[in-house]
Write a structure and sequence with these properties.
The protein has 440 residues and is an alpha/beta fold. The chain folds into 4 domains: 9-132, Rossmann fold; 148-259, Transcription Regulator spoIIAA (2-Layer Sandwich); 289-379, Transcription Regulator spoIIAA; 384-439, OB fold (Dihydrolipoamide Acetyltransferase, E2P). It has 12 helices and 21 strands. The protein has helices spanning 18-33, 56-75, 91-100, 116-126, 171-175, 183-195, 218-226, 246-254, 271-276, 283-296, 315-328, 355-378; strands spanning 9-14, 37-38, 46-51, 80-85, 106-108, 130-132, 153-157, 159-160, 179-180, 200-204, 212-213, 216-217, 233-237, 261-263, 301-308, 332-337, 384-392, 399-404, 409-413, 422-430, 435-439. β17 and β18 form a beta hairpin. The N and C termini lie far apart (57 Å). The protein binds S-adenosyl-L-homocysteine, iron/sulfur cluster and FE3-S4 cluster (F3S).
Length: 440
Amino acid sequence: MENILKDRKYCIVTFGCQMNEHDSEIIAGMLEEYGAYAVEHEEADIILLNTCSVRENADKRFFGTLGQLKKRKQENENLIVCVCGCMMQQQHIIDTLKEKYPWVDVIFGTHNIHNFPGILTRVITEKQKMIEIWEDGGEIAEGLPSKRLYKHKSFVNIMYGCNNFCTYCIVPYTRGRERSRNPEDIVREVRELAADGVKEITLLGQNVNSYRAKDTDFTDLIYLLNDISGIERIRFMTSHPKDLSDRLIQAFADCQKLCKSIHLPVQSGSSEILRRMNRRYTKEDYLRLVEKIRSAVPDIAITTDIIVGFPGETEEDFAETLDLCRKVQYDSAFTFLYSIRKGTPAEKYEDQIPEEEKHRRFNELVDLINESSARKNEAYVGRIEKVLVDGPSKTRDNVLTGRTDSFKLVNFEGDDELIGTIVDIEITSANTFSLMGKRV
Ligand code: SAH
Ligand code: SF4
Ligand code: F3S
């Protein structure tokens, strides 16, 4: 069959988490294998919006962007508008798209991204619209190409889906049940990445701690990857506190390449709210875990996710969250206003918290988190840190940015040839969100 995708100009807009970013990299990789190439939004013949449904504002941003494409489509009837990602796994979204957004040409889900070039080819040759959504994951598609954002670092999916069903969360419905990749496939991919110049990998999964393929669990996998030469840094996300094992904590000491940072979403400091979120740990369990991690790996940076205003969250529950944050002293945290997600158990919970109350609590929490972030960063001043240089600063000329082992953002003066290398930087000053330094 003729390759109809050759020389087509595409643009992908990604909403959502690293999982989605990585899916977009794979879609881009596939399109480029067919000879298509990436351009800015305004010049594209193919526009793909890769959506997220984790909170309401993600939905809103998507519909806003899609609304703007109506005019583009009227001006250029050859423009192909495609949508994919987590929102497409929800029937009510598909119904809305069919009813109100007739300029959409292609809709596909999270389980069949590998079919996109085929779907697109049919849409172009047969001049028709197409919807292809699979309910569940099935076999994992291996060997897909990927167009990485950075030459020196890469995401690596180790598992797909989630079985945890936290009561607020839509992800188990949009990404299906947990499926782990075979360790041989992961090792092969990481070897290939290393051969291609990649120094840092970030292992991705909604709950990497429940990775399991035959006899290999997540900690075994870390030891396997730690042996691959060329790879200098290994990160992972996300860890569910209920599944983080002592063996994994031990791995931080044993595996030189495992970076000293951990993202450990707590969601709430109230054991009662945690119970109703179905998180399956208490405030005390979590604090004990943090203590265990810190005594084994004293320098480790700990970050988290917190939801404010979960249904029924009382002033006392919220005070427990503040108390937990004071005790843990996070390096940083993503804080979210609880957002009702259609189809999740918490949608039906009574005592939804009024918006202005959620905002008040949210602001109080952010102030507290910022204090501990600033304090943690301040402690870096005077230290010499190994920084993997990512690229030029977006805001300042002649300034490069990179990350420490503990994932702190560092700005320093230097030439572009340092990009992709690991350099020694003396930290000269700090603020809430980043560090400044100079080369030594
Ligand atoms: N699998 C990861 C996180 C996936 S979603 C984990 O379990 O940690 C990323 C974050 O979004 C969650 O940690 C949670 O803090 C937040 N989140 C998910 N659903 C939400 C909702 N309905 N309202 C507000 N925040 C939500
Ligand atoms: Fe959502 Fe919970 Fe699964 Fe994370 S572990 S993706 S928060 S259901
Ligand atoms: Fe969003 Fe889907 Fe990720 S809902 S957070 S893009 S898994």
